[in-house]
Specification:
Layout lengths: L1 E3 L11 H8 L10 E7 L8 H9 L9 E7 L8 H14 L6 E7 L6 E7 L16 H16 L9 E3 L5 E3 L10 H10 L2 E2 H15 L3 H10 L3 E5 L2 E6 L2 E4 H4 L5 H8 L18 E2 L2 E2 L5 H51 L7 H35 L8 H7 L3 H8 L8 H4 L15 E5 L5 E5 L7 E3 L4 E3 L6 H15 L8 H14 L6 H20 L5 H6 L7 E3 L8 E10 L4 E6 L3 E6 L12 E5 L8 E4 L10
Parallel strand pairs: 18-21
Antiparallel strand pairs: 1-3, 2-4, 3-5, 4-5, 6-7, 8-13, 9-10, 10-11, 12-13, 14-15, 15-16, 16-17, 19-20, 19-22, 20-21, 22-23
Helix pairs in contact: 1-2, 3-4, 10-11, 15-16, 16-17
Length: 637
Amino acid sequence: MIAKVPPHRRDGKSSFKSLVNYCLGVTGHAKDSVLHVGTKNLNSPPEKAYLEMEGLSYENVRCKNPVLHFILSWRDYESPTNEQVDEAVNIALKELDLQDCQALWALQSDTDNLHVHVAVNRISPDTFRAVRAAGGWTKKALERAARKIEISQGWEIEQTGRYEVNSSGQILEKKEVSIPEVSQKARDIEVHTGLESLERKAKRELATILETAANWDELHEKLASKGFEFERKWNGAVLKYGDKAVKLSNVSRNSSFSKLEQRLGKYQERKNDVIIQNQDKEIRGDIFVQSKTPAKKSSWEEYQAERNHYLESKTSAIKKLKARQKQERENLYWRQKNRRSEIFSESWKGRGSELNQLRSIFAFVHRKEQLELRERQTEEMQELKSHFLKRFPSFKDWLADQSREDLYRVYRYPGQLLLSPEQSGIKIPNPQRALDLRDYSARRGAGSSVLYCRGGTFTADFSDMGKRILLNKRKLTEESVAAALQLANQKWGATEITGNAEYKELCISAAVKYGLKLANPNLAAEVERRRQALRQSRQQHTLITIKEISKLKLAENPKIYINPRMDNQQYNGRIVHIDEKRGICIQLSGQRSLFVHRLDKLERPPLQGETLKISYTDENHRAKVQREEVRRRTRSL
């Protein structure tokens, strides 16, 4: 788990309204990405919570910024329940000494990791004084809270940072903490792209120069030989490399601008005869095409080669199609012109009205031919582009598709020391199947009991006591219930269920989805009823015909695909029709192509008018549904 405080807004205008709206998905995130909302010490509904927070903050006019924003993020294969999210936030608030303050949090799913944004009002509702979070040690407190959450909820324990967990579950502060060589931003750039940051390059090549230069002229000359330029900035200085810059203090703590002036005297500008040497040609933003390890370098070169080949193939195909279409337009132009010349070269003396009619007819026919050609060429271009990705995957996403799980985990979790799946004992399940008993490991418990754990954790999801199987209330999910029922069916056949209504509902859902048997007569009847309804809903979609879709007039002269291919196919376009009774939706791709999708095959129900990318990976796997929009990175407000 990662717990962090994002950077403050650059304009310094943090507000409860902006932060609460950001958490709730009103701004910055899509509303459907918010899975759960919780509050503490607030009487207002979530969407009006900022008014109550602002009202309390007015009681303390001396506090300049009462807003605190922090984030708790789980790993991509960890899925906390709503109760676990609330528990995690309360643990973090207690570590920050803010448990008595007003707080609002929202669990979001717009990234690969489930994460919760927490907005806190630091003004105490009892004393109206501003509470200093953890006495000013906010990052340490959040890191300590993350370890406590991992222990309490059974998540994989992070191996890096200021704290470690011993075999007895105690959280101990490390005696020696390694200081990162470069800033977190620079490390994020490196691990997500495989390239070396400008900050690391400057630190490696310039730190010694800054610390050993005897005067300003020597400093300017040596920096210029490396392609850098010393430039004053506000009260300090930066080192410029082309149009990019790195802070002087990030390169060498012992060579800040004030310390350089103490050692070298008052600052002197660079002389005109000092020329900046040639800089690296391949510079992209703040990164360089260099890599720290052969494995990363090899992977980056493979990625670049595949990306370049893909872009060249796409550009070449589009270029050839454009050339052919241009030739078709020219052929049509000359064919129409020759036809007009042939007709109008005759003598039309005394037949003026007939000539005018013929001119009108020619104009009509020729324009119609031009419009038909334009429409056909537009469809050809859209068809060609549909065979290519809208954007080539990023380096991180490309690694995820490769068989290099070790490199992917390094890039996926910046600046962290992670155990491999073999080292940690975690078996990442096949994404093309639902979680079941195969994803669990068994270990002996007290007496004759057997404990079943998932994800390499030590907290059991359920326990086999011999004559009965008990489930952990804190880890009660459809997957854990299904695994327990699979074990029970194997031991006893049909299984007798005891518990409250919520638990029985979970058992029914798991039995329907996984094909399991329940011994309770009323539950077994409900399972059979739902299975029959599901079979009918799956069959109903075949009742729709091309004729019925044509009557909907969703497109002019449509091309209709009732059973689109599902073997690694991708469909882009707008949802123009939804029929929940038949369990289908219709997607318009381009101007005329209509694709009929089954709702039970999609990972989430679409909305009317949404522009989506629907990706099928396997015949029996639920299709991935993504909005066609640029995803925003998380930022503080």
